[in-house]
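Hi there, hope your week has been kind to you so far. Thanks so much in advance, here it is.
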Amino acid sequence: MEDFSQFFQRITHHPTPHHWQQALADDDQPIDRMIHIPTGFGKTLGVLATWMWHRVIQQDDRWPRRLVWCLPMRVLVEQTEDEVRQILEQLQLYWNGIDDHSGKVGVHRLMGGADAGEWHLYPEVCAVLIGTQDMLLSRALNRGYASPRARWPMEFGLLNSDSLWVMDEVQLMDVGLATSAQLQAFRRDNRADKQNVRPAYTWWMSATLQPDWLKKSPDTRELARNLPHLSIAPPQRSGHLWDDVAKPFRIEVVENDNTLKVLARRVAQAHSDHNDSRGGPTLIVVNRVERAVKLYSALKKEMASDTTDIKLIHSRFRPSERSAWRKAFLNRKACTETTNRIIISTQVVEAGVDISATLLITDLAPWASLVQRLGRCARWGGIAEVIIMDTQPKDDRAAAPYSHAALEAARNALGVLEDLSPLHLEQFEDAYPERLPLLYPYEPKHLLLAHELDELFDTTPDLTGADIDISRFIRSGIERDLQLFWVDLPDRVAPEPTLQPSRDALCSVPFLQAQKWLFGEATKLKEGVLAWAWDWLNGEWRLAQKRDLYPGQTLLIDSRCGGYTEEIGWSMKVKGRVPVIQPVTANAADQADATQDDESLSTASQWKTIATHGRETGELAASLAATLIPEYASLFNLAGRWHDAGKAHPAFQGSMQGKDRPDNSLLAKAPQTAWLRGRNLYPMADGSRRPGFRHELVSVLALFSVLRRYDPDHPALLGPWRELLEAIDQTLKFNSPQQSPNSLEQEILQLDAEQFNLLAYLISAHHGKMRMAWHSSPADQEARCDKPRLRGLQEGDEIEEIVLTTSAGDTAPLTPLLIDLELAGAGLNPYTGPGWTERIIGLIEEHGVFQLAWLEALLRAADQRSSRLNSGDPLLDNEVDT
């Protein structure tokens, strides 16, 4: 039988795993841990192989299904994704999203504009999710950057349950590291309270990881106290990567008033001298994007007559340009002795980039950053020359983006070293432990608190569509990014609602720079500038306002506005047309999740009734639950069968028209050509419309009507509160039973209070638009009507008899429903007992925010997958036969 060592050899073609890789795999119990391993020692392979060995090969169900790889920089995401995908394809374990997924593993990239695939629809499938801290942490906080608003809860639930997080290169994550630790502390608390049936774990990983980084709050001190710390002990520091590496260095003082022209001349001479003696690429790393761009321009002029290939890389390029870097020069094969190339970079090269320079020229930086930059030279052994440029800043402003104290500590450390190879660096840190607090300072400016996480569970926007800003928990300082993409547009003609950026088109820009570029000091766009922001409430692009520019936002820019070139990336000084990367048309799921009013998810290849779609959804939901949380299988079956009952409302039924529409049938699905669009959606018989209509609310009110009709003293309704309500002179509002419940209604009456509340919540939340709070929409408030209106429902609306499927597989009708919006009242009331929000708070206390969102995601996945079934409808077939 194959053991881990043999498996590792099979996937990597290495003779044996490193000692630390074997030790990681030998622990078969998933736990939180720290991994402190020098650069070049196979961290990516070690972690991937360990997770695959236990979860995929051994099929150990204790191990999470999702491996969530969180990286600080976009340039690392593509590289890691390629490495993971190649290994899975080699093993024939890669799932392409189409064929049978049994035993396979999906690979998904989560970046702005990236097509991440439909990982959120397959919670039972093993998957590797790879993304930046911005995209992953924002999703883990229920405010996913570049993710459709209604999808936030699904991703929140799935990323915080049944997942193993790998926080890679944490020295670059700033406040994101603290957020990851807080989240894991909250997950661990939920696990201790038995609220996370499928727990999540976190591995923090870096060549410079310090245990004290995870002890910044009372929440994380207990987490970090006994956290295993995997590292390479001194007796194990031997072999080629320890013994056969030398990195002699010198420090050159660069006066602040030196022009970049002079610096370019010195760099050109150093590269020429080095090429004459040794050969190979030269890597230059500077601390600011603006300095990198200016140095690049100066060096191009200085070496205009030279054959040296000069490249510029930084974080303000689009993926379209960045994708070419890995193939052209950011790879191992492009680092030979005959390579005559200079790469000018910022911090994007610090972590994980698999290149090795023979000459490294770097600005003085904090110690953790210097160690990472050193990992990009003599990476696979041999000798590399290192030149450290010290501008000797006098204060924090001059030292930006770093602190003066951090640079001073690094300068002092260099003063006691003669060589910067891995062995010398490890020996130095072992010998001077008192220096480590100064060399590796970490004081996050913001800490995510438990009550803030609870507040983020509610994804209801305000009346303008705005939301809580979470950027302070992801990156600190003012350099927090939004995304821009450029499109060719006729003058002031709004883009089509379905137009969305491709992954390759998005450029990350500090949001304050974008504000200055587009607005200056004014509140309106500069003259001649066209920028568009997405309007969730109306489902369209509209001219941007200054308040639309915040971290995580995506803006569409007219290509004539400038701001970007393929050579130097983003720059507000660049004029002229920006080369456009063709936008894409949003798919049905993305469009539906990005808009308040949209029925794209109700589009199908053929007509289908509410009862049949409900039955198919219930069967799939029960199957998912049986795999992941068996004790809830029957409840999920019931939720699936009931979730679309509200589509019987005339506003929904009237939105599906066509000559071939089946007569006298309550329909849930219709072909694309049958749907009314835009402002014609949700028509009523009297010619009015119901914008903002949500059928989920009708489905839940129908549930309450069953209890009110047959059992008003049910523990989920008035039963526990009758005495209190009567004591405060509240007249109880219910009707006396007029008939006996049928088998479908009996299923509801047999639930206890917690089951009923969970069922009601899952049904209400199954599109991500009606969750914790039931608020009127702007359309409700603008309606000229003398009756109360809520999310398109109007007091007194009549809904004909709804036919649903029972647990036995046959159909049964519900008594015709008269909409009573008193059932949506807040607080303790004589209609329902507890109000809606109070019920959800009780569910959160029972399940915790992570598991409740995860349960929500399971039903939503089943609903969307069943919507794609190309099956016939026996109820319609029977009608035709008749």
Notes: The radius of gyration is 30 Å. The chain has 30 helices and 32 strands. Residues 878-882 have pLDDT under 50 and may be disordered.
